[in-house]
Amino acid sequence: IKASEKPAYERNHKTVCLMKADGIGDTLIWLGSFRILYQYYREQGYHVVLICAAPNKIFYEESFEFLELVEIDIRKMYQLRYRYEILKKIRCIPMDIIVNCAYSRTISIDSVVRVCSASQKLGNSGDTVNTPAFVRWLTVRIYTDLAPGTSEINEMSKNKNLLQWIGVREPKETLAQLPPSFSEEGIVEGDYFVAFPGASLTNKCWPVERFGECCNWILEKKDWKLVICGGNGDVAVCNQLADLIEKKDRVIDLAGKTSIKQLSSVISKSSFLITNDTSAVHFGIIWKIPNICISKGCDIGRFVPYHGEVLAENHIIHK
């Protein structure tokens, strides 16, 4: 993509591009801060362009107004054809400012910042979680300015640090606000609890046998149904869990059968949630459902558990 290429269309208003291209769980943590940042730029007369990871478009389109909304398939960014087409599309979107809102930057998303038409390119100094130190040093020159790193571990605090650096006055660490459509669809009747035994990475999964022990114990203590949830990639482990349950007549296996909105709705109407460190726990916290999250331990404090103040203010039981 030639740097000399001009945007495909002209405009007479200021435009800022906010980019957050990571997982569903990261997006759910970010949404509270995004609402504040979106309002900050709108009050300054900016039109907003959003670049997000597929399939996270659904979290934004009902609640915000965008000049343009672009979804990126992160896994396809290593395919030359797809990479060329998406970068070409983004290069042709007029913008004055682009903000890469991720704390742990990646070279794929840095490449998006590099080709965009913005004269002001902002982001986080970040860390080396997703990028080796040498590559991180090389990509610094892509940006016109970077927010300094923070000693705060929690992801909400990292988001707050970026907002303060940009100029937002006294930003708060707040939970996401999802539209009513994320809790309206009633798929399961009666009282039930949810188990989510899968995750995006196998090393984030607690042994399914232990999920089985816990679920059987709960079914002995409570007159609830058990609803097993998971994505398309979690069907096998969810089927294993269903096979381990003694009271088969009280099990509903929805693995691979729910959309994002339906999963959110199922969790929002549950009595309790037990899950690995994945998107399910963030839905549970947003809907204030008592929950236990089993984390692999290497990044305790960043994504889970949530800040005690946030939990206390919202009366959430989260372990």
What does this entry look like structurally?
This protein is α/β, with parallel strands linked by helices and 319 residues long. It has ten helices and eleven strands. It has helices at residues 24-43, 80-91, 107-115, 133-139, 155-166, 208-221, 235-244, 260-268, 279-286, 308-314, and strands spanning 14-20, 46-53, 68-72, 97-100, 120-124, 145-147, 192-196, 225-228, 251-253, 273-276, 291-294. The strands form two sheets. A six-stranded parallel beta sheet has the order 3-2-1-4-5-6, with helices on both faces. The chain has a five-stranded parallel beta sheet with strand order 9-8-7-10-11, with helices on both faces. Helix 9 (279-286) links the parallel strand 10 and strand 11. Helix 1 (24-43) packs across helix 9 (279-286). The longest helix has 20 residues, at 24-43. It is elongated, with a radius of gyration of 21 Å. It starts with 13 loop residues before the first strand and ends in a 5-residue tail after the last helix. The model is unreliable at 1-10 (pLDDT under 50).
- Ends: how far apart? 48 Å
Widest β-sheet, arrangement of strands: 3-2-1-4-5-6
How many DSSP helices? 10
Strand content: 15-25%
Overall average pLDDT: 93
Structural class: alpha/beta
Helix fraction by DSSP (H/I, runs of at least 4)? 25-40%
Q: How many beta-strand runs? A: 11
Radius of gyration: 21 Å
Which blocks of ≥5 consecutive residues have pLDDT under 50? Answer: 1-10
| H/E element order | EHEEHEHEHEHEHEHEHEHEH
Q: Tell the overall outline.
A: elongated
Query: What's the main sheet like?
Result: 6 strands, parallel
